[in-house]
Recover the amino acids of this structure.
């Protein structure tokens, strides 16, 4: 048994669809514009944050190098020489053999610091200074090895002005080392 089919009658005409279709196109076009605007704002914000981060790199402290290494770096730079060559192979730098050995030893022990100092700059290591205080005396040992006596206020200032490294004190007389007192920063 076959059922008879009739062609359905549609009340939909092209003119009746146009307003609905137009509304749908307008709706999706607006949503697309909003999405595009959000993406654009997000990209601008990302660029802003990236620029802020790149400008705000954490400042790493400059490496601290001994005075002889600082001199070495400056000589190499002024002569246009390379930092990685063995210091002993450079001839006329004016350094004693002992100083060159100290430089080579320090560089071999602190390679990363040496390269950072070469590239980024450095701070020169301040040697520990000592003042010599002799018991029951206002005598001060001067750097030239002479003893001098002063009034109390002048004495304290003079102690600081004549502060010496351990090596300087021992080079004058080993026995003076027992009277050495470290000079504190700000004294």
């Amino acid at each position: 048994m076959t059922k008879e089919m009739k062609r359905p009658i549609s009340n939909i005409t092209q003119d009746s669809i146009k307003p609905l279709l137009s509304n749908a196109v307008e709706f999706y076009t607006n949503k697309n514009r909003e999405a595009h605007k959000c993406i654009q704002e997000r990209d601008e914000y990302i660029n802003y944050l990236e620029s802020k981060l790149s400008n705000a790199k954490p400042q790493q402290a400059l490496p601290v190098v001994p005075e002889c290494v600082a001199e070495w770096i400056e000589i190499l730079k002024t002569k246009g020489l390379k930092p990685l060559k063995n210091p002993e192979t450079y001839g006329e730098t004016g350094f004693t053999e002992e100083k060159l050995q100290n430089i080579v030893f320090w560089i071999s022990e602190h390679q990363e610091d040496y390269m950072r100092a070469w590239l980024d700059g450095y701070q020169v290591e301040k040697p520990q200074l000592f003042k010599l205080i002799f018991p029951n005396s206002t005598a001060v040992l001067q750097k030239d090895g002479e003893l001098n006596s002063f009034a109390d206020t002048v004495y304290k200032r003079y102690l600081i002005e004549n502060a010496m490294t351990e090596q300087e004190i021992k080079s004058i007389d080993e026995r003076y080392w027992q009277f050495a007192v470290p000079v504190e920063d700000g004294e």
